[in-house]
Amino acid sequence: MSLLDDPQVRRNVDRLPIEFDDYGFDRFGLSKKALTRAYSPMAYLYRHYLKVTAFGLENVPATGRGLVIANHSGGLGADAAMILTSLLLNDEAPRLGQGMAEYFLTRSPFARPALRKLGHLTGLPEHAEQLLNDERLLTVFPEGARGAGKLYKDRYKLVRFGTGFMRLALKMGAPIIPCAFIGGEESFPQLFHIKWLAKLVNGPFVPVAPQLILFPLPVACQVYYGPPMHFEGDGSEPDHVIQQYVDDVRHAMERLISTGLDARPRSFMFERMPDPKKEGRR
Amino acid sequence: MKILITGISGTLARGVAYRLTRRGHQVIGIDRRPWPDVPEGVEMHQVDIRKRPAEDVFRISRPDALIHMATVTHFTTDTEERYRINLGGTRKLFEYCHEYGVKQAVFVGRHTVYGATPDSPLYHTEDEPPLAGASFKELADLVAADLYAGSALWRWPELNTAVLRLCYFLGPSRGGTLAGFISKSRVPLVLGFDPLYQLMHEWDAEEAITLAVEKQLRGVFNVAGPSPVPLTTVCEATGRRAVAIPGPLYPMVLGRFGFPYLPDDAIAHVKYPVVIDNKAFVEATGFEPRYSAKQTMEGFRWN
User: Which of A23, A117, A121 is best to mutate for the B interface (most B CBs within 10 A)?
Assistant: First the structure.
């Protein structure tokens, strides 16, 4: 086993419900080779560093379109990486979560082809629709950068949601899978942001955490997936209807978050949370 | 059917002419370039589409259909001449079609008219405006010609007009934009970029144009074959060496050190993809490419 070629990652990449061509690319330029290479070190972090336990993976559809809607935390995007890894390492039905990338990333050299090879296209509504039409699974953080930059004092409070994901889900007839990520706030407790530096590098924010470096602490994290939610409509509903639907999703996520928080014996937990289902089977 | 092909001496057009004669159509060709070994069954007129003798061909032969492929690119012609041929020529031909009772007109354009920008989506559909003119001035005349040809749909509704936006093609003739770009053993890439390229086999492209005439297509259609592949894969599969050059140096190496020449505005097409959705065309014609991307590229290998 190597850090860049993990057998479980390789096996599950081969099992993804995605059509690849002779060269290992799908029709959007996603690369099998790049997936294995990028997810292998992630899998190592997932198992041994952040010690992630995933609950409710049976709620993620094995095939077909869907939107995973998750809370954002921890400033660094480690939460997104671990959610995507949990989807891929699900041996029952591995899925690839595909994100919508920030414009400033897809305009920059190196980042653009790298993101494309991992299935993250420029965040355009057209791309979201094309991917769902192709029966893919999208991962969306409706809080956006606002959510990722939450300070430790505001931990696990959902900030304002965008509503675009709901109109997309209705238009494309895609189920919504609410998801909560627990541990992100403790692995990178953001004390404050350096505003002038953020302005200088043109990024959304530059966080400062007690570890001082931009890397998470080895706090054990958990991912919870809730039952898929289906909504009636075609995406042309008036704002108040959409807002009601969005609030339903938000409540489902809040419930998942509080379940997750209650299940932890303490917030700074450094040992893996046991998964009763898996432990029982062994 | 009596079919007139303008620009018949071009690589793709010759193939279309062969195909049509083989299927029992009568083919008339116009080109200012010669076609020395023109096959039997093709009536060749070596004239300029903008000149009187071209109109005479319409008046005397009375073709049922026109396939307009007499457009030029920046590789061969300067700006003013390009506007005269691409836009002036297209306008004249559509007027002749109207005047001399042609029933079907097919304009063969290219998919690059959509333009390559960092924020444009993959899989362009026909309802999107062609934006290439804004960022790539050497394509502005072709964008205008494409839109002008499309305007025939409301200008002369009795004339069945089809505007095809064809993706890159590769084939044994070694003609075409992409073949030109990878004609040498080393292909210049912009460091940190690797766009998706959509290509089809030359013979599939010929078949698609032939189908457009035979099925009496009406409207604007994207024409593409297999799924796109990254440019590095195109280089690898065709046996070329991809040389990544830092962006700021890129314009300086073009046309030097054995690299092909490109105008500055074309560099965006080496950084960002132009990928089209061919669903409408496939639904209208039942077109199915015979060659995969792998077969097409490996057929183009260096020997």
Answer: A23
CB B206 within 8 Å of CB B213: no
* Distances, alpha carbon B18 to alpha carbons B21, B43, B260, in Å: 5, 12, 31
Does 3.40.50 match the CATH number of domain A50-281? no
Closest CA to A220 of A185, A274, A183, A257: A183
* Tens-place pLDDT, residues B138-148: 888 999 999 99
Question: Residues of A at the B interface (Cβ-Cβ below 8 Å)?
Answer: 21-23, 25-29, 103, 106-110, 112-113, 116, 121-122, 124, 126-127, 130
The fold adopted by the segment(s) B2-173+199-224+274-290 is Rossmann fold (3.40.50)
The tokens describing B92, both together, are 């004249």
Distances (CA, A) of B266 to A220, B228, B283: 50, 19, 32
Enumerate the domain spans of chain B: 2-173+199-224+274-290
Which residues of B are less than 8 Å from A126 in CB distance? 121-123
Query: Rounded to 5 degrees, what are φ and ψ at B260?
Result: -70, 160
Q: What is the ipTM metric for this complex?
A: 0.88
> Tens digit of pLDDT for each residue in B141-170?
999 999 999 999 999 999 999 999 999 999
